Amino acid sequence: MIHNAETLLLRDGGSCVIRSVEPEDAPRMLQYMKNMLGETPFLLRTPEEFDYTPEEESRILEKRKNDPRSLMLLAERDGQIIACADVQSHGSKSRVWHRAELGISVRKDFWHQGIGSALMERLIAFSAQCGFEQIELTASQKNRRALNLYMKYGFAVYGTRPHGMKYPDGSYGDDYLMVKMLP
Ligand SMILES: CC(C)(COP(=O)(O)OP(=O)(O)OC[C@H]1O[C@@H](n2cnc3c(N)ncnc32)[C@H](O)[C@@H]1OP(=O)(O)O)[C@@H](O)C(=O)NCCC(=O)NCCS
Predict the structure, then answer these.
(1) What are phi and psi of 79, to 5 degrees?
(2) N or C: which end of the chain has fewer CB within 10 A?
(3) Could you give all domains of the chain from N- to C-terminal order, each with its CATH number?
(4) Is there a contact between 119 and 83 (Cβ–Cβ < 8 Å)?
């Protein structure tokens, strides 16, 4: 689905543009995701595991753009992608048709500027318009920033997954399973 470009004012007095991701963004999206995955231990992949070619990424973005039940947003400033967030259906089968899944990331040097909140608000509004009845996500128990963001927007913990992630030093991280019911 397409979301027209809009300007978002940030807490530092600057601004960024929020818009839906286009297939032409593929090379910059790959760069953004690789940087982002290196910045946080709380996302599912390592930078090396995000190994799409620009052509593969472009095809994925084209598919998402043409999917009326999916929205992938980015925030950009000075030609650089600084955040990305998306929502899509849990699956195409009738019994899970009412469930959406959400993911979000903001570049570290832009944290706590209100970008995460702005992206969440747009994705929640889109999900409701689409007819989804609930939005689901998974967050590491130690990811305090993300948990605060999700709780601020009405997500509640409905379960805990032990050892959701395993790190190279042999340690584990537990996950919270979260859901927001839509009116
Ligand atoms: C989680 C994340 C998306 C938040 O994005 P953000 O742009 O910093 O979010 P916002 O500035 O809109 O802040 C939203 C809320 O997050 C919480 N938050 C932000 N910074 C925080 C901090 N330093 N400490 C604790 N909570 C914080 C607050 O509740 C805040 O609400 P408030 O501004 O009304 O107080 C961002 O930190 C991020 O991308 N982290 C790495 C990737 C990641 O963990 N993604 C989620 C995977 S489940």
Answers:
(1) 80, 0
(2) C
(3) 6-181 (3.40.630.30)
(4) yes
| Per-residue pLDDT, 1 | 83
pLDDT in tens, 26-82: 999 999 999 999 999 999 999 999 999 999 999 999 999 999 999 999 999 999 999
In the DSSP assignment, the letter for residue 25 is G
Write the Ramachandran bin of 129: left for phi over 0, alpha for psi from -120 to 50, otherwise beta.
Answer: alpha
- Our mutation pick for probing the ligand 1 site, out of 18, 145, 176, counting the most ligand atoms within 8 A of Cβ, is 145
CA atoms of 149 and 111, how far apart (whole Å): 11
Dihedral angle sign, alpha carbons of residues 91, 92, 98, 100: positive
| Pairing mode, strands 134-140 and 172-181 | antiparallel
Q: Give the 3-state secondary structure of residue 30.
A: helix
The answer, yes or no, to whether any atom of ligand 1 lies below 6 A from the CB of 111, is yes
Cβ atoms 136, 178 nearer than 8 A: yes
pTM above 0.90, yes or no: yes
Residue pair 67/8 in contact by the 8 Å Cβ criterion = no
